[in-house]
Amino acid sequence: MNIRFLFSIILFLFAYTSVQSQNIANTRAEFDSLYRVNIKLSYVNGVYIPKDLDDAFSSLSQLSPPESIQKFKMADEDMVCRKLHFGLGKWMIVNWNFYEGSRFSHYLKRIGLLHPDDKAQFVLRTYHRFLNGKELNEKEIIDGFAKQRKQLAEELRKKIDSKK
User: Fold this and answer.
1) From CA 6, how far away is CA 25, in angstroms rounded?
2) Are 42 and 48 in contact, with CB atoms under 8 Å apart?
3) Contacts of 26 (CB under 8 A, 6+ apart)
4) How far apart are the C-alpha atoms of 59 and 42, rounded to whole Å?
5) Residue 21 covered by a domain
6) CA distance 29 to 52
7) What is the pLDDT of residue 28?
8) Residue 43 falls within a domain, yes or no?
9) Is residue 121 in some structural domain?
10) Whole-number Å distance between alpha carbons of 20 and 2
11) pLDDT value at position 136?
12) How confident is the chain (164 residues) per 10-residue block, as mean pLDDT?
């Protein structure tokens, strides 16, 4: 492996973890305090935070080039949500502060979405439906994520029990 390439990766990871660690709470009390502040802010780390789903759709439409929106719109819903999870989905998780809390992540929490990955998938799926003029069926999507999380927890519990 090229030493320059390896050095670049190490430098990137160091810079990334340094930036990420700036806002990390060390205790539950610090996290709760940071969360209470973040959910009231319209900007976190210089990034505009949507207040609700309609505002998120508007933000995504403003941030994305028209040709990208068109490709997203024309693609199969399941495929595009799966493929964009580690791109646009992760961008939302980080920039809209789904882990540390933001007014949008708090909005999503209040409607039943707890895990950051579920929040990102929910936004991707509903945005796709919005662009295509389809019914959003928010409750159906949220219930599906809750069912998946419950199933994962059951499987983990069984795995742990089988090792005892």
Assistant:
1) 31
2) yes
3) none
4) 13
5) no
6) 26
7) 87
8) yes
9) yes
10) 27
11) 98
12) 52 46 71 92 96 98 96 97 96 96 98 97 98 98 96 92 86
Which residue's structure tokens are 């930036």?
19
| Residue 98 · residue 122 · CB < 8 Å | no
Residues contacting residue 44 through CB under 8 Å, at least 6 positions apart:
38, 96, 97, 102
The answer to whether the CB of 120 falls within 8 A of the CB of 90 is yes
Total structural domains in the chain?
A: 1
What is the number of other CB atoms lying within 10 angstroms of the CB of residue 2? 7
**Residue 29 falls within a domain, yes or no?**
no
Write the DSSP assignment of the chain as a string of letters: --HHHHHHHHHHHHHHHHHHGGG--SSHHHHHHHHHHHTT-SEETTEE--SSHHHHHHHHHHHS-HHHHHHHHHS-HHHHHHHHIIIIIHHHHHHTTTTT--HHHHHHHHTT--SHHHHHHHHHHHHHHHHTT----HHHHHHHHHHHHHHHHHHHHHHHHHT-
Locate tokens 């996290």: which residue? 31
Buried-state track 113-146, b at ≥16 Cβ within 10 A, e below 16: bebbebbbbbbbbbbbbbbeeeeeebeebbeebe
Closest CA to 97 of 46, 27, 149: 46
